[in-house]
Amino acid sequence: MEAKDYLKDISEIKTLMDRSSRFISLSGLSGVLAGIYALMGAWLAYKTIYFDNDSISNYNDLTISSDAVVQLFMIAFTVVVLSIVTGIILSIKKAKKGNEKIWNSSSKRLVINFAIPLITGGIFILFLIEKEILNLVAPLTLLFYGLACVNASKYTLGDVRYLGITMIILGLLCTWFLSYGLLFWALGFGGCHIVYGAMMYFKYDRN
């Protein structure tokens, strides 16, 4: 009995240490909603890109006006803002439910490690847009976002790592199949967020 008690105590200590080093209040439902926002954004982007290019299917042949670029930027900005706000609100709600602090050392490390590759990628992509190298925007957003997820996953739920790896794979495939950039973007930011968000919700949030 004493040996079992020791093992139980060790297991509880390990669990407490793991909880203290990881931000576990990340909401799976926010991932599902982010995926829905992304699918809506992809549909609006499709309508914007192909409005004057009905007969063109290859990104290399697309002619996108400056007004269309502004519209695409606003669509992407809106999707990002909605996703972030939703994630913060639902994570705060989950943290309060579990009597946990939303802003602690774990969440700080999570944000920093997520932001470094994401901001780097965002600046790099803005340079490409300014140079009118638009066919690499979709794969690079997937790649940098995937790297950000993998980099931040050690400070939150382990499922985020697998989401990141999936995004990286899709980004590499998207680089090979450049003509289907928007489709891969929708599949990654839309479909993957919904699938992984639903998995995380049923695994961690329902109780």
Give the arrangement of secondary structure elements.
Layout: H1 2-21, H2 28-49, H3 66-97, H4 105-130, H5 137-152, H6 159-176, H7 181-205
Shape summary = globular
> What is the percent of helical residues?
over 70%
Instruction: Give the low-pLDDT segments.
Output: 5-10, 12-21
β-strand number: 0
Helix/strand order, N-terminal first: HHHHHHH
Number of self-contained structural domains: 1
Q: Helix- and strand-based class?
A: mainly alpha
**What is the makeup of the main sheet?**
none
Strand content: under 5%
- Helical stretch count? 7
Radius of gyration, in angstroms, nearest whole number: 20 Å
- Alpha carbon gap, first and last residue: 31 Å
Summarize the structure.
It contains 7 helices and no strands. It is mostly helical and 207 residues long. The chain starts with a helix and ends with a helix.
Description:
The structure is a single chain. The protein is an all-alpha fold. It has one domain (28-205). 77% of the residues lie in helices and 0% in strands. The protein contains seven helices and no strands. It has helices spanning 2-21, 28-49, 66-97, 105-130, 137-152, 159-176, 181-205. The longest helix has 32 residues, at 66-97. The protein is globular and about 55 Å long. The chain starts with a helix and ends with a helix. Mean pLDDT is 81; it is low at 5-10 and 12-21.
